[in-house]
């Protein structure tokens, strides 16, 4: 059963990729969807056996590499953390596969698309079920490869090419640090297996590394490298610019990418390595700080965007920031709980956005929409519930985890956590603002989509079923699993995470005031009202009243909105910064070293020298010389073969050496 969970999506990839044209794209799409759905059903049984029954399953597959003491054995580890991720990955992937049958029904390359989705799911399952860092890295790189293929699925579009390359390059930067962490772990423990490393973590606590005349603990280096790897994969501040551009791919790709696969891999890495991170307080604080800043900065950027998918993409960055700050404060159980909740309503938001785009013939700009509440009622209902869930509306899925994250931050009662709590609360305000802004622009404003207004329609049956199921999960999942994952006494992840006694804080939120507990909800309501007022009533007021200092206000507002509309000018900064470095690299390495020194004095230079020498010799000597030398080599080789094959000839040669040599010389020079 456990092996089928992992390898059924791979069978779907093989079938759709190799036999899709033989059996037809519809049949191959149905078959790959069915296999992923079977994997989801088996994951439910695994959830009962591993999580609810509190057991761990390990399966050894084979030995991949054994070099002296460096042994890599491929195996599968099914503990509580892995199985919880299996539920999310296979469940969301099943709904995305089903949704894609309707969304991509008119695409002639449906089989290739479904095979990429199945391969994406397979590599994510390899990542979450691996029992060592090398196998995890294979899944880590596999989801990166599949993201490149899926973002660049419509490869004739230049923007899709650029977005796919950008995602690949930005993730390679983080992957370098992840590889360094794996190498450092192996040099310390002489193994890459989780269980051995986590049980012998004391070996690394006292070791230090000298760096720039400073002595730094080795565990801090390991945790820092792992953190950078997670930051790149989960698109945190600094390495986040690839995620909004990844919206150039088809909408089902965005849903699977943001909800259950690639971007959740960084959070999974931090939770999986909790026995290592718990002993590095500096890196934990850095993770919490980066998460808080990402949550706030991404939420503000989302307010100033007009692309429907980009708004939801920055929302993903913001929610991942909440998960990072939760991990940074050692609240790993709450982080995985919020990850599971976020997967359902984020998948719902993306699929609802895809329904809007599909109904409007691939239009994504909100300024060209409006008034669709009567034409797309079910899509409005779905995206409205998803927006309420991400805002943390009471008794929806996001309410049970998002508020708990902020309560645990506040209950630390230190200055650092107070700043992080303020950033998290502020992010909640802007999350509510861009959510209500999206709803107003798409469904309630006077329409600006004159070409597509009367031909817009609800989605097909497959798309509607997927959205309906995700809507139910967005309503019920948090309520059904809150006691299992959140709070003191919950033991769902007891055998998967490690927590120092000094970092245990699940009882502290019980002693904070009711006002602070309800503050995120109040801030969200205030953000909704503010967004409504600023967006809907500003034009009415500005057209009828003369505002004081109107020019100054307009100038300041234009500068602020331009800054956040261009996402803080990160892309411009990176282009201007690294463009000069790339030009320097071209002139210093490519032009003068690669094409200069190495070509002149390397293999190409040697080849060129002897070629010129041979041409000069050929020009100086008559042609008969080369003809004679060729015949000489031919007869010498023939004679040597003849000697080897016939021993009698050898004895004859020994007796009549002089006669034979004379005959050969006469032949050669005749």
Quick take:
With 670 residues, the protein is mainly alpha-helical.
How would you describe this structure to a colleague?
By secondary structure, the protein is mainly α. The strands form two sheets. It has a two-stranded antiparallel sheet. It has a two-stranded antiparallel ribbon with strand order 3-4. Among the domains are: 334-494 and 513-565, no CATH class; 579-620, no CATH class; 621-670, no CATH class. It is built from 27 helices and four strands. The longest helix has 32 residues, at 158-189. A hairpin with a 2-residue loop joins strand 3 (208-211) and strand 4 (214-217).
Q: How much helical structure, as a percent, in the residues?
A: over 70%
> What percentage of the residues does DSSP assign to strands (E)?
under 5%
Q: Name the shape in a single word.
A: globular
Strands ordered across the widest β-sheet = 1-2
**Low-confidence residue ranges:** 542-547, 665-670
Backbone structural class: mainly alpha
- Total helical segments: 27
Count of extended strands? 4
- Distance linking N and C termini: 82 Å
Quick one: biggest sheet?
Answer: 2 strands, antiparallel
Kindly report the average pLDDT value.
Answer: 81
Rounded radius of gyration (Å): 32 Å
Topology:
Blueprint: H1 2-23, H2 25-52, E1 57-67, E2 70-78, H3 80-103, H4 110-129, H5 133-151, H6 158-189, H7 194-199, H8 202-205, E3 208-211, E4 214-217, H9 218-233, H10 242-245, H11 251-259, H12 262-272, H13 274-277, H14 281-303, H15 308-328, H16 332-359, H17 377-391, H18 397-410, H19 415-444, H20 461-485, H21 514-544, H22 550-565, H23 570-601, H24 603-620, H25 623-645, H26 647-655, H27 657-668
Antiparallel strand pairs: 1-2, 3-4
Helix pairs in contact: 1-2, 1-4, 2-3, 2-4, 3-4, 3-11, 3-16, 3-20, 4-5, 5-6, 6-9, 9-12, 11-16, 12-15, 12-16, 14-15, 14-19, 15-16, 15-18, 15-19, 16-17, 16-18, 16-20, 17-18, 17-19, 17-20, 18-19, 18-20, 18-21, 19-21, 23-24, 25-26
């Amino acid at each position: 059963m456990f092996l089928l969970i992992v390898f059924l999506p791979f069978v779907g990839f093989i079938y759709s990729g190799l036999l899709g044209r033989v059996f037809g794209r519809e049949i191959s799409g149905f078959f790959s969807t069915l296999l992923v759905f079977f994997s989801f059903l088996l994951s439910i049984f695994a959830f009962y056996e591993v999580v609810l029954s509190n057991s761990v399953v390990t399966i050894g597959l084979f030995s991949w590499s054994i070099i002296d003491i460096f042994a890599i054995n491929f195996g599968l580890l099914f503990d509580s953390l892995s199985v919880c991720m299996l539920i999310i990955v296979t469940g969301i992937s099943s709904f995305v596969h089903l949704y894609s049958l309707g969304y991509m029904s008119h695409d002639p390359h449906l089989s290739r698309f479904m095979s990429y989705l199945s391969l994406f799911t397979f590599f994510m399952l390899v990542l979450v079920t691996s029992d060592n860092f090398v196998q995890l890295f294979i899944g880590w790189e596999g989801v990166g490869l599949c993201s490149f293929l899926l973002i660049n699925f419509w490869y004739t579009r230049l923007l899709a090419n650029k977005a796919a390359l950008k995602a690949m390059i930005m993730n390679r930067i983080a992957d370098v640090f992840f590889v360094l962490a794996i190498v450092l772990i192996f040099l310390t423990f002489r193994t890459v297996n989780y269980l051995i490393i986590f049980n012998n973590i004391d070996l690394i606590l006292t070791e230090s590394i000298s760096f720039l005349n400073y002595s730094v603990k080795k565990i801090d280096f390991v945790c820092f490298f792992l953190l950078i790897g997670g930051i790149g994969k989960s698109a945190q501040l600094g390495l986040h610019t690839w995620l909004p551009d990844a919206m150039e791919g088809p909408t089902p790709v965005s849903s699977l990418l943001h909800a259950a696969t690639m971007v959740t891999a960084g959070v999974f890495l931090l939770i999986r390595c909790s026995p290592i991170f718990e002993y590095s307080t500096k890196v934990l604080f850095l993770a919490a700080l980066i998460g808080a800043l990402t949550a706030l900065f991404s939420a503000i950027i989302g307010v100033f965007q007009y692309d429907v998918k980009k708004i939801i993409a920055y929302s993903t960055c913001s929610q991942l920031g909440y998960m990072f700050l939760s991990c940074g404060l050692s609240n790993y159980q709450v982080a995985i709980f919020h990850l599971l909740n976020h997967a359902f309503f984020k998948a719902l938001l993306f699929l609802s956005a895809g329904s809007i785009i599909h109904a409007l013939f691939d239009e994504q700009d909100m300024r060209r929409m409006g008034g669709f509440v009567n034409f797309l009622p079910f899509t409005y209902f779905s995206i409205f519930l998803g927006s309420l869930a991400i805002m943390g509306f009471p008794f929806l899925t996001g309410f049970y985890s998002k508020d708990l994250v902020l309560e645990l931050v506040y209950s630390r009662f230190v200055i650092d956590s107070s700043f992080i709590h303020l950033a998290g609360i502020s992010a909640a305000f802007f999350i509510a603002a861009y959510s209500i802004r999206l709803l107003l622009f798409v469904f309630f404003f006077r329409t600006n989509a004159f070409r597509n207004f009367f031909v817009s329609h609800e989605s097909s049956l497959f798309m509607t079923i997927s959205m309906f199921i995700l809507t139910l999960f967005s309503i019920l999942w948090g309520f059904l699993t809150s006691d299992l994952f959140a709070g003191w006494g919950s033991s769902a992840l007891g055998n998967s995470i490690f927590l120092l006694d000094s970092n245990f804080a699940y009882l502290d939120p019980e002693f904070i005031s009711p006002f602070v507990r309800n503050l995120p909800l109040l801030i969200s309501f205030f953000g909704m009202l503010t967004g409504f007022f600023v967006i809907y009533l500003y034009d009415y007021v500005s057209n009828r009243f003369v505002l004081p200092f109107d020019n100054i206000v307009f100038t300041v507002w234009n500068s602020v909105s331009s800054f956040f509309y261009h996402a803080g000018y990160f892309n411009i900064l990176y282009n201007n910064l690294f463009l000069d470095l790339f030009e320097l690299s071209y002139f210093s390495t490519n032009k003068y070293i690669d094409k200069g020194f190495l070509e002149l004095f390397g293999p190409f230079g040697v080849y060129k020298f002897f070629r010129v020498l041979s041409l000069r010799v050929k020009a100086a000597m008559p042609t008969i010389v080369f003809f004679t030398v060729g015949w000489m080599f031919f007869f010498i080789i023939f004679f040597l073969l003849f000697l080897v094959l016939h021993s009698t000839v050898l004895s004859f040669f020994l007796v009549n050496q002089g006669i034979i040599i004379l005959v050969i010389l006469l032949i050669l020079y005749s």
